[in-house]
Design a protein that fits this description.
This is Dual-specificity RNA methyltransferase RlmN. By secondary structure, the chain is α/β, with parallel strands linked by helices. The protein has eleven helices and 16 strands. The strands form four sheets. The chain has a ten-stranded mixed beta sheet. The structure holds S-adenosyl-L-homocysteine (SAH).
Length: 365
């Protein structure tokens, strides 16, 4: 498995691409289906083990394409069963993937970028800076590894690891298509969730090409606070974000938007905030995930007390908004929400761009 930038990586191809490749090489399309199935369904990357692929095609493939996957270089199991995998990419950058078992279910939390450029105030990934987008192969490769480790495909995938998936639109969409393919991981659309900080134009774009579940990192019920916590809000304020999310689920009455709301002590967790939130989400079929803030070194945020989180939750529930407090999993191995860091050579040099005035951080758009 040698990475070679000039050669196609088979893990970057969806079913149609695999068929086209095989036809280009002078063989029937169905061999492309078999090839795709060997790689994803059976986890086979050795051409010689692909017994129903003609020998001449195997040779042609060997001569033209590579099969290259991220490499698991560390495996951190946690006491609650959560496991964090550190994966190294061909260029030496590292990403993290988290496996969360829950009875019969198993969720894989997948990264979409090396680092993140979005600078959310309370997120450890943001501190790493940003290097690059992941390729389709690097995104799907995380699921490939999970399926090999588990002996079966995971039941759920959440695009909630490092990075902003809607800032890596094409690769994220193609990777999610492969996850849903019956010849690959067979995940139903409800079981693949894309989480975004709110890149509004790409929420509309996503609606055109995909029907995965949508989760949005809300974290604040008004623009003033959200501008501070999730700076992309300065570009796409709530008055644009909420209608985009509503539009995303509009053609299916059973669908809901999942809102993620990190509970920051004394910042966004009062009953007044809950009331604003109720007003904001009026008329939007919603599910709210309250996430206790997961601390990491180098910031002043604190976690809301369980009592405060419960009071907030009850207030929302009484208003008819389905709200759940997310169990914190894997925090002692730094695998919980917002704690994934990998190894990122920052290319944005953002510290030079952030202005600090009167003790407040000004993050340029
Ligand atoms: N960029 C996408 C995907 C990341 S999802 C997005 O923003 O949605 C990861 C989730 O964990 C997001 O909802 C994020 O806001 C949340 N999160 C980040 N830092 C956190 C922290 N320290 N504690 C709890 N949740 C956090």
């Amino acid at each position: 498995m040698i990475a070679n930038e000039t050669r196609t990586n088979l893990l970057d191809l969806d079913l149609a691409d695999c068929e086209a490749l095989v036809v280009d090489l002078g063989f029937k399309a169905f061999h492309g289906r078999n090839l795709f199935k060997w790689i994803h369904k059976h986890g086979v990357t050795d051409y010689d083990a692909m017994t129903d692929v003609p020998k001449r095609l195997r040779e042609a493939l060997r001569g033209t394409v590579d099969i290259y996957l991220p490499r698991i270089i560390a495996d951190h199991p946690s006491e609650d069963g959560t496991t964090k995998w550190v994966m190294e990419l061909a260029d030496g950058q590292r990403i993290e993937t988290v496996f969360i078992p829950e009875g019969k279910r198993s969720t894989i939390c997948v990264s979409s970028q090396v680092g993140c450029a979005l600078e959310c105030a309370f997120c450890a990934t943001a501190r790493q800076g940003f290097n690059r987008n992941l390729s389709v192969a690097e995104i799907v490769g995380q699921v490939w590894h999970a399926a090999r480790q588990l002996g079966t495909a995971p039941t759920n995938v959440v695009m909630m690891g490092m990075g902003e998936p809607l800032a890596n639109f094409e690769a994220a969409v193609k990777a999610m298509d492969i996850m849903q393919d019956d010849l690959a991981y067979m995940l139903a659309k409800q079981r693949v969730t894309l989480s975004t900080s709110g890149i509004v134009p790409n929420i509309y774009r996503l609606r055109e090409v995909s029907d995965v579940s949508l989760a949005v990192s809300l974290h604040a019920p008004n623009d003033e606070l959200r501008d501070q916590l999730v700076p992309i809000n300065r570009k796409y304020p709530l008055s644009e974000l909420i209608p985009a999310c509503k539009a995303y689920i509009a053609n299916d009455k059973r669908r809901k938007v999942t809102w993620e709301y990190v509970m920051l002590d004394g910042v966004n967790d009062s009953i007044a905030h809950a009331k604003q939130l109720i007003r904001l989400l009026e008329g939007v079929p919603s599910k709210l995930n309250l996430i206790p803030f997961n601390p990491f070194a180098g910031n002043d945020f604190g976690t809301s007390t369980p009592e405060r989180i419960e009071a907030f939750r009850v207030r929302l529930t009484r208003a008819g908004i389905f709200a759940m407090t997310r169990k914190t999993r894997g925090d002692e191995i730094s695998a919980a929400c917002g704690q994934l860091v990998g190894r990122v050579e920052d290319r944005t040099r953002r510290l030079g761009r952030i202005r600090v005035e009167d003790g407040r951080m000004e993050i340029p758009r």
